[in-house]
Structure formats: C-alpha cells, structure tokens
Amino acid sequence: MGLRRGLAFAWLAAFVAALLWLALRLPSAGLETSIFELVPWKAPNPAAAAATLALRRQVESRFQVFVGAADPRVAERAAEGYATVLHRTNGVSSVVCAVPANALSTALSCFRAHRAGLLSAPDRVLLSAGGDGLLRQAELGLYLPPGFGGSFETDPLGTFGRWLEGNAALSGNLSLRDGHLEIDSGGLTWVAVNAVAAPSLDAGAMRAFDASLQTAAAAARGLGATGLLRSGFVFQEHAAARQAMREVGSVGALSTALLAVLLWFAFRRRRPILLALLPAMVGCLAGAAAVLLLWSRVHAVAMVFGSTVVGVADDYGLYFLSGIYDKPWDSDRRARLAVGPLALAMATSVLAYAALVLFPIPALKQVAVFAAVGLAADWAGVVLWYPRLTRSLESAPQSRIAAVAALRRAWPGWGRPWLKGLLAVLLLLAGVGCLRLRVDDDVRLLYAHDQTLDQEQRQAQALTGLGTATSFFVVQAADPQELLRREEALTKVLDGGRTHQWMALSDFVPSLARQQSDRLALQRALFGPGRLARRLAERIGQPALELKLRAALKQGDAPLTPEAWLADPASIPYRGLWLSQPDGTMESMVLPGPGLTPADADRLAGPASALPGVQYIDQLRSASELLAALRRLLSWMLAAGSLVVFGLLTLRLGPAALAAGAPTVLGAVLALGTLGLAGLPLNLFVLLALLLLLGTGIDFGIYMQDGGDRLSSFLAVHVAALTNIAAVGVLAFSGTPALRSFGLVLSVGCLAAWLSAPCFSPKEARNA
User: Fold this and answer.
1) Which end of the chain has fewer CB atoms at under 10 Å, N or C?
2) Alpha-carbon distance 587 to 472, whole Å?
3) So where are the chain's domains?
C-alpha cells in the first residue's frame, strides 16, 4: 500500500506540473496550418531543397485581391481603399496597389544601357535570315507612336521594344493603366492589390488578420466595388485553420455531451458520472502538455485528431466504475479484478497510437504523443486513484442490475441461425464494397478546401492567365554565367519554338555569350553586308540616321550582369528565382509561365531533366508519392501489429484470444466495405483508422473475455463503444476528405465490434 500511495502522489505531482506547463505555453503556442508542413517533401539534394523552400515561402506569403467595378475610376478608388486598410494590418509586410508614375521608366532604364544585346527569339531568327523582315517592321514603326523601346532613332528595328514586350507577357493579361495593374472582363474593370503576409501567424494574429481583411473588403464595397476576388494560398490556409478550430470544438463538445448522456443512463448518480468524465479531461490535458513540450507549433490536423482521444480516454474509468453492477461493491476488489484487463487494453491502444511516431509526418507524430501520453496518464490515474476515490460508492439499484442482466441474456450468440445469415449478407455486401475500393494518395485530401475561395481562385486565374506553380525546374551550376547558359538551353527545350512559355532568370538577364552573339548579329545586320541601316536611311530620306544608329548602338553596348540586375528595383518581383548555397554553388528556378498546366510540365520533364544540371520538382506529386510509400509501409505494420496484439491476447486469455479478436476483425472488414460502397478512396489515413481500430476496438473483446460472466464487463463494452463512436463519428462530417474517411472507418468498425463482442461472450455468461 505504501508503494501504491507513493506512486499515486508522484502521478499527481506530474499531472500538476503538466498543467502548469500547459498554462505557461498555451498562450504563445502557434497553430500550423500549411499543407506543405503536414507532409514534408524530402528533397533529393540541397539544390532541390533550397528551391522548394524558396517557392514554398512565396506561395504561402504572397496573395492578390482583385477589386472590380463597372467604372474604372471607381474600381481604382475602391482598390486603394482596400490597400489602405491592408497597410495598417499587422501580419502584412508589404502592399502594392498604385504604382509610382515613374515606375515604368525606372524599370526600363535598367535595360536601356544594354539594349544592343537584348534580342527576342523571333528577332534572332529574322537576323539570321538576313534581316529583311526587320527592315519591313522598322518601316511600319515610322507610323506608330514610341513603344517600350523608346524612339525610332534609339530602337529603329524595334528589337529592344519587342524584347521588353515579351518579358511583360510573363505578367499575364494584366496591363498598367493609370498607375494600376488592371484588366477588363465581364463588364467590370478589375484592379489588382498585391500583398505579402508574414509567415507563421499564431491563432490570435490570424484572427486579427482575417478581421482586417473583412474590414478592407467592407471599405472597398463602401467605395463602390461590386466584386472581390481573392487569390493566394494564405486565404485557404486560414480557412482551413478556422475549419479545424470549429471541428476541434464541435468534436470535443459533442463527444463530451454524448458521453455525459450515456453516463447518466449507466449510473444515474452525480459522483460516478463525474468520476467517469474525469479521465477524458486528464488524458486531453496530459497529452496537450506533452505535445507543447516537444513542439512549439501544433498542426491543425493534429488538434482535430487529438480531440478524438476524449472518446477513448474514458474507457478505463468506465470499466472500473461498471463494477457497481457486480454486488457487493468493493473498490479494492474491483481494482484487483480490473487491473489485468485495463493493462492489456492500455497496452494495445498505446501501441497503436505510438506506431504513428514512425511516420515522417509531424502532425501524426503529434497525434501519437498526444494520444499515447494521454492514455497512459489516464490509465495510471484510474489504477492509482480510483480505488481510493470510489470507496464510498454503492452498488447499482437492483432494478437496473436486473435490466442489464435481461439485456445480456437477450443478446444473441453466434449459434443463432438468423445471426449467421445476417452475417453472411453483411460480409457479401462488404465484399462488394471492397471490390469497389480505389486507392488515392493525393496529398490534397488532407486539406479542407473552402469552395467559395476555390471558385474565386479559379476566376482570378482565368482573368490573369497566371496560376500557382507547384512544379518547376531547378538549374544548378558552378558560376552565374554557366547557370544562365544552362537556363537558356533548358528554356529552348521547354518552349518548343514558342517564346515565354516559362519564366526564368535568363529571360531578363541573358548570358554574356548570348548578349555578345546578339549584339554582333545586330551590328552585322545594320552595318555589315546587308547594310540595313543605310537602306533604312535612304528609304526614309534621313542620311544622318546611320551615324545616329551607330552612336545609339554604342550607348547600349554594355553587357547586363545578374549582379547589376538583382541590385535594381526592377528585379524585385523575380528575385525569388535566384538562389545560392553557402558553398558558392549557383542555383535558380524555372517556373511555368501563363497558360501552362501541370500536365504540360509533366510532359516536358523527361527530356528537360536530361540536360546537365537540371532537375524537375513536383511538390504535390512528391508528397503524394510519399503518402503512397507510407501507406504501403503501414499495411505491413498493420499486419505486424495484428500479430503482436494477438500474441498479447493469447498470453493473457489463452484460447479465448480468438473470440476477443474476432469483433475487431469483423469491424475492419465491414468498415472497408462501407468505405467502398460510399465511394471514398483507400489511403494512408484509412489504414491509420484501421490501426487505431485495432488498438481501441480490441478493448471490447478484452472486456468481454477477461470479464467472464460479470455484468460490469457487458455494460463497460456498451458504454465504452458508444463513447468511442461518439468521439470519432463526428469526423465523418469533417471538411477534410481524409478525416471523413478516417471517421467513417473508425465509426463503422467500432459499431460492428461493439455489436458483435457480446455475441462472442463466454458460454456461461449467456446462460446466466
């Protein structure tokens, strides 16, 4: 008794310390919502890792809002009103709406000093053919206003202007008008507001950020805006976080409410009900403290999964308290009878959850720690404290004992012919459902999508012609010039004769070799044997034009270097393409341009990746392939775990181990069949549900077989099963597809295991 008392107070001290730690850490704990952090992508080398991280930061932080109105001036004022609110918002690091009047000339000045070496691919072809086609374009240019390239005398053939126009095409359908990026569509003028959100907002900052966005939208509508389109990962990320928080609250609240109702029907007294609810609170608090001890940020999906522990954590207390149906009540005797089944139930459940630690998914590791620590703390609390806390309890009234006994006698055994027929029909339907199962490891199934935001995103992409890149090429070289040459070789393969299909650093800064080659080609065309400059001067009657062109070409003769361009403000939107490693290795990203789809990128991945220093990266596919590999691994783990659990059952129960395990096996088969009939896919999280079913549903068989003919075992199975179903069943209505499958499999599996476990009860129990 002295040892038990010492362990009990040691457990209490540890729990108090966990509460203090939780109170200290919870206010500053961050909420992780990124889908990229949910399934981390394993980079094949440092170049891919750096490129992936850089693109991820851009995707997660940059967002765009389009403000629309029928009158362009109204749209511009409304967009500026929206931007004004964003400027005052914590969590937004930069906002661009109105472009300074000299922004275009400032950007162009970066290139004018180097214009002789900047040629578009079509003009390069025309020069190689002798340049007569350029001469005809130059004659037409006499009757047009000055373009991007400047005056006729500085860019007579229009080569510099066309090079600038080609690079401007990388901005999609947007055009610069009245100092704003605008586009006309559907009778409205849409004005773009570009912004960058600070990464990793905590829950409080996220709520403030979302409130500011609502204020900004109201301000825009107050200024006459009739349409708003939001485009950016940050909106989906915050929507998913809100969804997770709602689901955590609903799962926990509904589970607790259903648990309280079930406990009232089982015990009808305040004290046993409170004692039965206590383990759920203890398990959740201990698990949360353990997670915050190991991680500074908790993933939203882990919170939703962790909330289901409420339905499992109360099993141990329920089993102990169900002893009031065995007369006479003796807390110490109940502790001796319960410690074996409870230890076996705890070992199987913790084993199932702890297996999640082996997976390289942070959210699952957090679920594993939350559940394993919570359940272990709950079990220890019941074993150490319940004998002391329940000494003054009384046995259940005889009327309720008689009612439970009558239900137990009426519960059918597997010897009934009609039950065998029903089982055959259910297994046949389950077989049909299993044949319809399809495998889908798409990582996007792990993310709750807001349909309104999805629609706005598609509209914004249709307006601009731009998409969000999750696949791209990484180019690696020993120095900047080699990197640019490799990029040029890559884009030649990717473009397939068309220009600006892909966005690369070399679009803006050609290699020195290409600049020199283009400059010499232009000089030969103008002043070489073809004498384009003299012929053009004669046709327009300006003899001095040739000398002016020589002077202008000399002024634009300096080569453009990556260092000079990256130091100029014109490069700000594209600096994310340029990467470097501490060892001096140069790297860059080549991204899909407007109008390209992931299928286009996949089609070109093979031939492009064969080039030196080039590799293709597809984050979504890589993450999905990782999930597929983990699914295959988990299938073997599930088989091995089943053998381990059956071994533990055999050691404890002997021949009755088969009867203890049969309800869980039946539940798993029926759950998979239901999944197939519902048209939901088989994936990693379905197997995770089966793994957890192995750890929780097996408890029902353990309680029945280890409990013998006691009414307490029969009652414990019913109440524990119903609370488990209440806890996980809510997930079947989750906004996250993977959680829906998870909740459905666990609910159906627990339901089948619950209804069938008493059918396998010992023979003397049915004859009592």
Assistant:
1) N
2) 13
3) 2-30+237-442+622-766
- The stretch 433-445 carries a mean pLDDT of 85
How many whole angstroms separate alpha carbon 465 and alpha carbon 593?
A: 9
Checking phi first, is residue 89 left (phi over 0); if not, alpha (psi -120 to 50) or beta? beta
**Range 257-262 contact pairs with CB under 8 angstroms and sequence separation of 24 or more:** 258/722, 258/723, 258/726, 259/310, 259/311, 259/314, 259/723, 259/726, 262/719, 262/722, 262/723, 262/726
Quickly state the pLDDT bin for 749 (edges 50, 70, 90).
very high
Could you read off the pLDDT of 287-313 as tens digits, one per residue? Answer: 889 988 888 878 766 766 666 665 566
Judged by DSSP in three states, 557 sits in: coil
Dihedral sign from CA coordinates of 13, 14, 17, 19: negative
Apex 426 CA angle, 422 and 431, nearest 5: 145
Q: Which residue has the tokens 């008008």?
A: 177
Task: Confirm if 31 and 241 have CB atoms less than 8 A apart.
Answer: yes
Q: How far apart are CA 355 and CA 175, in angstroms?
A: 55
Residues written for the chain: 768
Q: Which two tokens stand for residue 35?
A: 């889908």
Beta partners for residue 472, in sequence order: 617
For residues 278 and 147, give the distance between their C-alpha atoms in angstroms, rounded to a whole number.
76
Inter-residue contact 730 to 304 (CB < 8 Å): no
Parallel, antiparallel, or unpaired for β 30-32 and 297-299? parallel
Select from 240, 193, 195, 171 the least CA-distant residue to 58. 195
CA distances from 371 to 132, 343, 374, 404, 486 (A): 76, 16, 5, 32, 51
Torsion on CA atoms 515, 519, 521, 523, rounded to nearest 10: 180
739 in Cβ contact with 685 (< 8 Å): yes
Confidence of residue 87 (pLDDT cuts 50, 70, 90): confident
Q: E strand or H helix at 233, and its extent?
A: helix 233-267
DSSP 148: T
Q: Which DSSP helix (H) or strand (E) runs through 472?
A: strand 471-477
> What's the Cα-to-Cα distance from 553 to each of 164, 533, 546, 601, 653, rounded to whole Å?
17, 11, 10, 38, 93
Is the pLDDT at 177 greater than 50, yes or no? yes
Sign of the CA dihedral running 199, 201, 205, 209? positive
> What is d(CA 497, CA 164) in angstroms, rounded to the nearest whole number?
19
Between 73-87, 230-244, 510-524, 677-691, the lowest mean confidence (pLDDT) is in 230-244
How far is it, in rounded angstroms, from Cα 499 to Cα 483?
20
Cα–Cα distance between 461 and 173 in angstroms, integer? 10
List C-alpha distances in Å: 126 to 109, 133, 157, 579, 693. Answer: 26, 6, 11, 34, 70
CA atoms within 13 A on the CB side of 517: 13
Of 437-441, 476-480, 604-608, 684-688, minimum mean pLDDT range: 604-608
677 pLDDT tier (thresholds 50, 70, 90): very high
- At residue 49 the predicted structure's pLDDT band, cuts being 50, 70 and 90, is low
62, β-bridge pairs? 196
**Residues contacting residue 119 through CB under 8 Å, at least 6 positions apart:** 127, 159, 163, 518, 521, 522
pLDDT band at 432 (very low <50, low <70, confident <90, very high): very high
CA-CA distances (angstroms) from residue 66 to 82, 190, 228? 10, 6, 6
Measured between alpha carbons, how far is 176 from 99 in angstroms, rounded to an integer? 9
Average pLDDT over residues 400-410: 85
